[in-house]
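User: Some background: our group keeps a shared notebook of sequences we're curious about, and every so often someone picks one and asks for a predicted structure to add to the entry. Today it's my turn. The entry only has the sequence so far, pasted here. Could you supply the structure so I can complete it?
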Amino acid sequence: MTQPPASPAPEGPTDSAAPVHWKLVIDTADPHAQADFWAAALGYTVEDHSALIGKLLGLGSVPAGLTTEQHGRAAWRDLAAVRHPDDPHQEESGTGLGRRLLFQRVPEPKTAKNRLHLDLHPGEGRREAEVARLERLGARVLRRVEEPSGSWTVMTDPEGNEYCVH
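Assistant: Of course. Here's the predicted structure to add to the notebook entry:
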């Protein structure tokens, strides 16, 4: 019996050093509230998807039930995103590229410790003021850590997702 030929090896070396675009996706019960919190916490901008939504609705590509109104404009019902205000992909709505956090609605609540979290670095000597500011936005302090390797404050956002302020 003859074996089928092996798959050909890729031609030339692959460029594994090429940058890969990414976004951090966070499961949430309320994507718009989370986007508002994190935009305020990080000084980011809530993405405006209204032009893209209007275009897709006009083409009949998406049902109106997938949208809602948020801050007086059309928004995705189950998705909201924030991005760095100087992000070079700011005007490319719908590409998914850039320095951004995407919040997606899921039916189940958070049940365990995060395996991935953000570390916020407000600058030397500014941690306590930043912690107080974040608490005013709806965050909660879980604990303060003092170790030989450093100190930080572990906090949760309004839905209980952990992050650290250094």
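Suggested note for the entry: Strands lie at 24-28, 45-46, 67-70, 73-76, 79-83, 100-105, 119-120, 140-147, 150-156, 162-165. The mean pLDDT is 89.
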